[in-house]
Amino acid sequence: MSIELLDRDDAAALAEYERAFYAAFERVPDNRLVRSLWQWDDQARRVATRVPYADQVIYLTRLHGAIDGALAVNLRLAQFQSAAYGFVRPDEPAGVCELLGFFAVADRRMATRAGFWRACIADLEARGFHTAYATSAPSSYATYVRFGATLVDEAELAGELRYFLSFATGGREGCARSGPPLRPARAAAGAAGSRAPAPA
Fold it and tell me: Does the residue 188 lie in any domain?
């Protein structure tokens, strides 16, 4: 498997990502919380989170050249997506990030998703993050538990349950790191294309 980082300054790349994001989540049109959480453009078939792209790193995988999976991560926490469900931003944000959206479009096999997840978490560790927070609907909760989630809190809004989860990513002082973080290929000297090998 190879992963790449979304070039946030490339309008065409952003459009491709937002269309893949939409394709992955259009199966849940009646999920009112998701519809209010993100910014949906049904006419253009695009969706984006409310966290500025400048505050995100977005990991991508491709299938036959098209984006088939992604994990969007909020690095700064200046805007905390989980607060929309009433969950509180950590008091000490250093070394903490927030997982905004995780999806697969066509290849939804657990082995593929787990491998992609591990690669992204390894890169976050290399960036110095030790904890990631995320929210989950009940339908995804078991998957996130398999990925190492710890339940922090839960809330019910408009009749829908949401879980607030934490994930240990490593990266604490004194812990071994998996290697240098990924960089967009155009920022890496001598890189060819926009893909980078996934950390082992």
Answer: no
Q: Which residue has the higher pLDDT, 32 or 94?
A: 94
CB-CB contact of 100 with 72 (8 Å): yes
Please report the DSSP string for 51-89 in residue order: S-GGGEEEEEEEETTEEEEEEEEESS-SS-GGGGGTPPP
What is the domain range of residue 49?
Answer: 2-179
pLDDT of residue 23: 93
Q: Whole-angstrom Cα distance, residue 107 to residue 18?
A: 18
The CATH number that applies at residue 21 is 3.40.630.30
pLDDT number for residue 173: 41
**Scanning the structure block, which residue is given the tokens 């989540």?**
25
Backbone angles phi, psi at 7, to 5 degrees: -85, 100
Q: State whether the Cα torsion 133-135-138-144 is positive or negative.
A: negative
Instruction: Dig out the tokens for 156 from the structure.
Output: 């019910």
Distance between CA 153 and CA 166 in Å, rounded? 10
Q: Specify whether the CB–CB gap between 193 and 65 falls below 8 A.
A: no
CB-hemisphere CA count at 13 Å for 175? 16
Total number of domains in the chain? 1
Amino acid at 137: A
Partners of residue 40 on adjacent β-strands: 47
| Burial zone of 145 (CB within 10 Å; 0-12 exposed, 13-18 middle, 19+ buried) | middle
